[in-house]
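1st attempt posting a full record on here, be nice pls
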Amino acid sequence: MYSTPDKALLKLSSQTLTSCTLLDEVRAINAKDVISVIAMIPHTPTLPSGVMEDRFFMVERPGLDISNLGVPYSGFAAENDDDNEDGGPGVE
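the predicted structure (as C-alpha coordinates):
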Protein backbone atom coordinates (compact mmCIF):
# COMPACT_ATOMS: atom_id res chain seq x y z
CA MET A 1 0.00 0.00 0.00
CA TYR A 2 1.05 3.60 -0.59
CA SER A 3 0.27 6.85 1.20
CA THR A 4 -2.06 9.48 -0.13
CA PRO A 5 -0.33 11.77 -2.66
CA ASP A 6 1.80 14.66 -1.39
CA LYS A 7 -0.63 17.59 -1.59
CA ALA A 8 2.02 20.24 -2.24
CA LEU A 9 3.59 18.30 -5.16
CA LEU A 10 0.15 17.54 -6.54
CA LYS A 11 -0.77 21.23 -6.47
CA LEU A 12 2.57 22.40 -7.94
CA SER A 13 2.25 19.87 -10.78
CA SER A 14 -1.30 20.95 -11.67
CA GLN A 15 -2.68 17.62 -10.39
CA THR A 16 -0.36 15.53 -12.62
CA LEU A 17 2.29 14.16 -10.19
CA THR A 18 0.85 11.59 -7.81
CA SER A 19 3.85 11.14 -5.49
CA CYS A 20 3.43 8.74 -2.55
CA THR A 21 5.48 6.94 0.08
CA LEU A 22 5.53 3.18 0.55
CA LEU A 23 3.60 2.01 3.61
CA ASP A 24 4.26 -1.10 5.71
CA GLU A 25 0.79 -2.46 4.90
CA VAL A 26 -0.21 -5.29 2.57
CA ARG A 27 -3.71 -6.18 1.40
CA ALA A 28 -4.97 -9.14 -0.58
CA ILE A 29 -7.88 -8.57 -2.94
CA ASN A 30 -9.94 -10.75 -5.24
CA ALA A 31 -8.52 -10.63 -8.78
CA LYS A 32 -12.04 -10.03 -10.13
CA ASP A 33 -12.10 -6.72 -8.20
CA VAL A 34 -9.20 -5.29 -10.26
CA ILE A 35 -10.48 -2.51 -12.51
CA SER A 36 -7.21 -0.90 -13.57
CA VAL A 37 -3.44 -1.49 -13.70
CA ILE A 38 -0.92 1.09 -12.57
CA ALA A 39 2.80 1.18 -11.91
CA MET A 40 4.48 2.92 -8.97
CA ILE A 41 7.80 4.27 -10.26
CA PRO A 42 10.52 5.12 -7.70
CA HIS A 43 11.83 8.69 -7.66
CA THR A 44 13.57 11.03 -5.21
CA PRO A 45 12.07 14.50 -5.56
CA THR A 46 13.01 17.59 -3.60
CA LEU A 47 9.79 18.41 -1.78
CA PRO A 48 8.59 22.03 -1.50
CA SER A 49 9.94 21.97 2.07
CA GLY A 50 13.44 21.37 0.63
CA VAL A 51 13.66 17.77 1.84
CA MET A 52 14.72 15.03 -0.60
CA GLU A 53 12.74 11.86 -0.01
CA ASP A 54 12.43 8.41 -1.60
CA ARG A 55 8.93 8.29 -3.06
CA PHE A 56 6.93 6.63 -5.85
CA PHE A 57 4.86 8.26 -8.59
CA MET A 58 1.88 6.64 -10.25
CA VAL A 59 1.70 5.81 -13.95
CA GLU A 60 -1.63 4.54 -15.27
CA ARG A 61 -1.66 1.81 -17.93
CA PRO A 62 2.13 1.44 -18.16
CA GLY A 63 3.36 0.42 -21.60
CA LEU A 64 0.09 1.08 -23.39
CA ASP A 65 1.57 3.91 -25.47
CA ILE A 66 4.45 1.70 -26.69
CA SER A 67 2.55 -1.55 -27.08
CA ASN A 68 2.71 -1.33 -30.89
CA LEU A 69 6.03 0.02 -32.14
CA GLY A 70 5.65 -1.43 -35.62
CA VAL A 71 8.09 -4.22 -34.81
CA PRO A 72 7.16 -7.38 -36.71
CA TYR A 73 6.85 -10.47 -34.52
CA SER A 74 6.76 -14.02 -35.85
CA GLY A 75 3.12 -14.41 -34.84
CA PHE A 76 2.19 -11.37 -36.91
CA ALA A 77 4.39 -11.94 -39.98
CA ALA A 78 2.93 -10.84 -43.30
CA GLU A 79 1.89 -13.60 -45.68
CA ASN A 80 4.49 -12.62 -48.31
CA ASP A 81 7.49 -12.66 -45.91
CA ASP A 82 10.33 -14.86 -47.11
CA ASP A 83 11.49 -17.64 -44.82
CA ASN A 84 14.80 -16.93 -43.10
CA GLU A 85 17.77 -19.33 -42.92
CA ASP A 86 16.37 -21.44 -40.08
CA GLY A 87 13.10 -22.03 -41.93
CA GLY A 88 11.03 -19.63 -39.81
CA PRO A 89 9.28 -16.49 -40.98
CA GLY A 90 11.60 -13.68 -42.04
CA VAL A 91 11.88 -10.57 -39.85
CA GLU A 92 13.50 -7.40 -41.12
